[in-house]
Amino acid sequence: MYTAKHAMLYKHKVHDAEAYVFYMDIRAGGKGYDEFVRRAIEEDSVNYIRGRVSRVYERNGKLIVHGADTLLGAQQVEIEADMVVLATAGISNPGSEELAQKLHISYDKYRFFSEAHPKLRPVETNTGGIFLAGACQSPKDIPDTVSQASAAASKVLALFSRDELTREPVIAVVNRTAPPLFSTCAGCFMCETACPYHAIEREEIKTRDGKVIRSVARVNPGLCQGCGTCVAFCKSKSIDLQGYSNEQVYAEVLELLS
Amino acid sequence: MENTFEPKIVAYVCNWCTYAGADLTGTSRIKYAANVRIVRFPCTGRIDYNLLLKALALGADGIIVSGCHPNDCHYTSGNFHARRRWIVFKQMMEYMGYDMRRVKFSWVSAAEGAKWADIVNTTVREIRELGPAQRIQNEEFRMMNSEG
Ligand code: FES
Q1: Would you call A61 helix, strand, or coil by DSSP?
Q2: Distance A93 CA to ligand 1 centre (A)
Q3: A39: distance to nearest CA of chain B, Å?
């Protein structure tokens, strides 16, 4: 698509010039996209040649593009060009991996960020409160980016329009039973490294006059998605998953086996 | 002996892949051994050592742990943690002389109903051959739990 646009813009600026495009398959999926390519070919008479280029080399200050036209029975084509533009693929931003790791959102093997669900949650990420729009998720053109950005914006509005946030029904909790500020949490923060959502926070236990006794883990209920990885990591068994607590599972297994 | 022994097998599965996969086994009307009792978890990342030990202590003859394929975990990385934990667990148990053929670890996706039936059937067959499990005694269990 962007090749067609380049060729078109070029032809509009330099009227008596010739533009050649070597292609195998034109990917012009979208409303009016195919018409756009046809317009480049038919109205602006850009020469589209179906075939691959085998060689580009210099001769007398010109670039010679050597290719084949597969629609004319693989006839050899040689074009003397002043400039050769490579239509390379769109790739992700070099810093995207680092950013994804910082935000704890997942990314694919091409380092584009992944949405939470390809069909049902296309602008959300797995981390609550982080949304995707545009070419960070996959190569995209302007209409797609705008619609995705609008969707992301409306998701954010939906988040802010309520007085209270809804959370997952199943989340992890660190025990904080009485006496007043007691917890068996030893503060090793293994859970912090294990949590894929950055939902573990550090909380300080203070005496009445504000002296910090120690810091323990706390689960941010808005971020926790309830996977329970922290539960298995916790050495002192101070963290438990609501609905899947150790006790509940033991009881279940006991019943199943008796 | 071999014909009368019905092993009790506990399956710890994750909600998003294997549980759905086992569901698919049912809806596609594939028959499999009834010896397995499925316990559902949100993710294999939740499945702790002590749950496996508990099941063995309570008289399970075999265990199947199964979750999403690597990279498919609903919570991004739970199954990677589970896999590492599993490697350590296996070595520890083997060191202590437990026959780890009784404990199976596998990946079954939501689309692999037939694979689930297959895993259950082979496990049941193998455990039938191995015979009833010797129960891990409670004292041992307590010891292992406090040290592990
Ligand atoms: S959700 Fe299936 S293994 Fe994590």
Answers
A1: coil
A2: 29
A3: 43
Say which residues have a Cβ less than 8 Å from residue A129's Cβ, sequence separation at least 6: A159, A222, A223
User: Taking the CB of residue B10, how many other CB atoms lie within 10 A of it?
Assistant: 27
Q: B142 CB near a chain A CB, below 8 Å?
A: no
Ligand 1 contacts (CB < 6 A) are B 14, 16-17, 43-45, 67-68, 73-75, 78-79
Nearest to B110 by CA among B53, B26, B7: B26
Q: Per-residue pLDDT tens for A147-188? A: 999 999 999 999 899 888 888 888 998 887 755 567 888 889
Alpha-carbon A42 to chain mean position: 38
Helix (H) or strand (E) holding A80: strand A75-81
| Class of residue B80 by CB neighbours under 10 A (exposed 0-12, middle 13-18, buried 19+) | middle
Q: How far is B37 from chain A (nearest CA, A)?
A: 7
Q: What is the DSSP string of A83-135?
A: -----PPP---TTHHHHHHHHT--B-TTSPBPPSBTTTBSSB-SSTT-B--ST
Q: What token pair was written down for A137?
A: 């998720």
From chain A, the residues in CB contact with B60 under 8 A are: 253, 257
CB–CB of B75 and A170 under 8 A?
Answer: no
How far is it between the farthest Cα atoms of chain B? 45
> What pairs with residue B62 in β-bridges?
B9
Q: Rg of the Cα trace of chain A?
A: 29
Name all domains of chain A by residue range, CATH numbers in brackets. Answer: 2-81 (3.50.50.60), 96-160 (no CATH), 172-257 (3.30.70.20)
Residue A107 has φ and ψ, to the nearest 5°, of -140, 160
* Rounded Cα distance, A82 and A203, in Å: 66
Tokens of B87: 């490697």
Q: Domain spans of chain B?
A: 9-145
Strand B62-67's sheet: what is its strand order? B36-41, B9-14, B62-67, B103-107
What number is the ipTM of this complex?
0.83
Chain B residue numbers touching A126 (CB-CB < 8 A) = 75-76
Name every residue whose Cβ is closer than 8 Å to that of residue A74 and which is 6 or more positions away in sequence.
Answer: A51, A68
Token pair for residue A55? 């060689």
pLDDT tens for B40-69 read 999 999 998 888 988 888 889 999 999 999
Tokens 């008796």 sit on residue = A258
pTM: 0.69
Domain B9-145 matching CATH 3.90.640: the answer reads no
